[in-house]
Amino acid sequence: MSTPDQPDIDLTLRREPLSLADIGRAFGVSSRGTVHRWHKPPGQSAMDGKPPATKPALHAVAEALGTPLDPALAASTRPRFPVDVVLALGKALGYLDADGRIVEALRSKGRGRWLPAAPTIDPATGKRRVYTNHLAAALGIGNETIERRLTRGTLTKPDGTDELDRNFWWAPTANTVLIDEAQRRNEKPDTTQLF
User: Which of 8, 171, 172, 180 could link 128 by a cystine bridge, Cβ 3.0 to 4.6 Å?
Assistant: First the structure.
């Protein structure tokens, strides 16, 4: 979080690589642990000796963008990441809007698992990703209803998971879900609700 002594970092103006502390300030994240996990997975002992299921988010985004990272970066105690990787991660996770500015609604969000306030942008393709909360709001139902319908198999499966293992649908898939749901209810699809 920004303080009077340390204002938010505007990534649209930044050119030099960012430290983990800079990334936290740029995203408005006060937890050092959260930002650290984006760089380095939990230790093997914390994971019962199993390798991590996915790459840490910063490294996965760099790979998706084709931005090479120094191999020594993974072991570094003071890593610095290129601005394009940090911008893409912020947009992918929902901390930054499409213009690279911090999403104001997140400044007061609590701890724990959360869903982005608006659809995010996939770092590899630039395509929009729609999450459970967006689909639920467009359908006029709760997030729990979406989850139950997914479990029962009565709703189109998500297209994938993001860097934090959150389910998402590509915008065209989500639009198809909205149209199909309106037709199932014998209603005319509201094209103003499409993503």
Answer: 171
- Please provide the size of the chain in residues: 195
Tokens of 26: 């740029």
User: What backbone phi and psi angles, to 5 degrees, belong to 54?
Assistant: -135, 165
CA distance 141 to 149: 11
